[in-house]
Here is the input.
Amino acid sequence: TMLYDVNNAHIYYPVGATAPFAAISIVPGFTAAESSIADWGPFLASWGIVVLTFGTSNPTTGASDTSILPPARADALIDALKTLTGENTRSASPLKGQLDTARQGVAGWSMGGGGTLIAASAHPELKAAFGMEPWNTSIAYMMDTVPSLIFSGDSNDGLAGPPMGQNQYMSIPATTPKILYEIKGGNHEVSTSPTSQMFAADANSTANVARFGLSWLKTFLECDTRFRQFLLVKPADATEFDTTVM
Here is the structure.
């Protein structure tokens, strides 16, 4: 592939769980390494979801390049899902015959979050998407029918803070399941990890991010209705909480 950096990519998968598994690809932001979003890999895999996290590459040469723009990151997310689909049939793969290739999703941070929502708009076959502080100045998600969750920082996020998150949320049709969770005191990295407190806005923000990210994928990627209830409760630290999920 020429769309993502195959030398900086990892697949996380469940062990001792019952297949078939849904899958998701996750891309980082501008000038950021795969490591910036890697915590989502083992976390989601521990809940039964296969995850491919990756760095980005120059679409023409395939060389490592962390500066590609949101549309290229969208293409990279889809290309990564094709890699996962290939693992389902590759003879030496530990995932051979283990994937439900009809249940795939995308996620990303910053420019990768913008790419996530671009990918969701262009690929209605996807089942779920979530953007972590998504950055995109060319907001046009009117074709997005994929359930889309947006994490946002508040004014402490000088790159993708208000009104960018709200504008992106509003551009997604009201008929699409969607949530905007703007975190009080959240900076530009506030939702990049569901387990580390490094960029936490408060004592509960990391746990809230984990709950919403996981519950979103369980509800829409896996169609596990038990998790829907966790999407209906506004977090205490939300400065803005908009939703079409009932």
Summary: The beta strands are 4-12, 21-27, 50-56, 99-109, 128-132, 148-153, 178-183, 238-243. The first strand starts at residue 4 and ends at 12.
